[in-house]
Amino acid sequence: MTLVTRLQTSYSRNNPRLILLAGMAGLLAVSACTSSTSIPSEVARIETAQGSAENIGSLTAVIRANPNDPVAYNVRGSAFGKSGNTSDALRDFNKAIQLNPRYFEAYANRALIHRIEGNLSAAAADYNSAIRINQNYDKAYIGRGELYRRAGRTNEAFNDFQKAIQLDTTDPRAYHRRGLIYQSRGQHDFALDDFATAISLAPNSPEPYNGRAISYIALGQIDNAFDAVNFALNLDDNNAESWANQGLIWEQKGENDKARKSYRRALQLNANFEPARNGLNRVGG
């Protein structure tokens, strides 16, 4: 089995957000990763509510004063979602939708919680409901597109991200994830354009910098890839993917001692991150 085949097998098996760069003569790297058991960063974006106990207490007081206000339930549900309390989040989104069956934001928020809990069919149904109610709701297209992308339905995912972008979304996820699809198709110039837009919209997020690094590797621009990964690490030095990508670049440069250090750091942060484990095995870790 070739190195490319081994990487493709391990990467696709262990992370739904990994992108294989076909046609590379050398090593491959991975794009943004998220554990299926963790609360994804999108929770922080739903209605921007904070998940502190103090804030949830304040929202509860608002609901007591306005028990038939769907907006109050939607906002508190978002706060519960941000805190990781998915059962209470679902309860509040259910109540918001019961009070207003055309509350498309609540459908999209509930869809995200369903996705976190692994109920993908319910998530898809809620995104579809949100889109039926409001065909111009960009976040529902982005959420549904991510469901499609994780399921390997990349053409449908691309269409949803494209639709959100056509709606003039300012959500960086649409550009980042469309970039990942361009990347998977070997269209790295388009991917780099999308990563650049995502960075302009979310300059403190390491994910598009890691995506940028992967395309630079595919194009043989190793120094540019190294700069992108190091920028990602400056933003968040507890990101296992960034360390693994840095290890891969050191490996490409023939600096195996430095590669080992980067791979080991990635595994300290995520002991189950198989791309880092495989990289460490390659460099004799």
Structure description:
The structure is a single chain. With 285 residues, the protein is an all-alpha fold. The chain has 2 domains: 1-30 and 170-285, Serine Threonine Protein Phosphatase 5, Tetratricopeptide repeat (Alpha Horseshoe), CATH 1.25.40.10; 41-151, Serine Threonine Protein Phosphatase 5, Tetratricopeptide repeat, CATH 1.25.40.10. It is 68% helix and 0% strand. It is built from 15 helices and no strands. Helix 4 (86-99) runs antiparallel to helix 5 and helix 9 packs antiparallel against helix 10 (188-201). The chain starts with a helix and ends with a helix. Mean pLDDT is 85; it is low at 1-49. GO terms for molecular function: transferase activity. Pfam families: TPR_11, TPR_16, TPR_2. Residues 1-32 form the signal peptide. It comes from Ahrensia marina.
Brief overview:
Residues 1-32 form the signal peptide. This protein has 285 residues and is mainly α. It is 68% helix and 0% strand.
Beta-strand percentage range:
under 5%
Judged by helices, strands and strand pairing, the structural class is mainly alpha
**Any idea of the CATH class of the largest domain?**
Mainly Alpha
Average pLDDT, rounded to a whole number, is: 85
- Which CATH architecture of the largest domain? Alpha Horseshoe
Number of strands: 0
- Estimate percent helicity: 55-70%
* Rg of Cα set: 20 Å
Q: Segments where pLDDT lies below 50 for 5+ residues?
A: 1-49
Look up the CATH topology of the largest domain.
Serine Threonine Protein Phosphatase 5, Tetratricopeptide repeat
Oligomer: single chain
Number of domains: 2
End-to-end gap:
21 Å
